[in-house]
User: What shape does this take?
Amino acid sequence: MNVHAGLPDIFVDPERMKLVIGHLVGNAVRFTPPDGKISLTAKAENGWLLLGVQDTGPGIPLESLPFVFERFYRGDESRQQTDRESGLGLAIAKSIVELHGGTITVESAPGEGTKFSIKLPVIDDND
Assistant: This one.
């Protein structure tokens, strides 16, 4: 875990944000091999808090990347590990982050892992 000291305050619903981070970490755990690595990062930059969840799993196929935040999108069926996966987790995560005034993005390449990045506005001390 790489967390910078002195992170600024943000205004979020803690329960909803736990769902977002929990889903991203859960996906990373599910798709990272036993000898792989999962990294969590947090840092402040230009009025934003930047959070990252990165893994060394198999990655997401390039043709799937534009669709990962769409409702019910489940990607490559061969990667599905359970019939209980609904394809809603990332869509819900995106909605929650956007309702907090932030953004969520994904970077991935097959065989190189995946990184989800969340950008949330910090509390302006001048308000």
